[in-house]
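pasting for ref
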Amino acid sequence: MNIERTVLAVAGLMVMVSATLTYYHHAYWGFFSLFIGANLLQSAFTGFCPLATILRMFGQKSGKAFN
């Protein structure tokens, strides 16, 4: 799996976890979903993604996100 697909998978997983915690635990977990969405939006415009930087440091290769 390449960096782009890993970032998309982790973001999707975190949104699902946040939605579940919002529903079952406390409404404030919804802010975590907003944070994830804001991070994805800014990375679309700036090209900077903290997770991608971390994955690159661990040696994961970049590739095409969509074929």
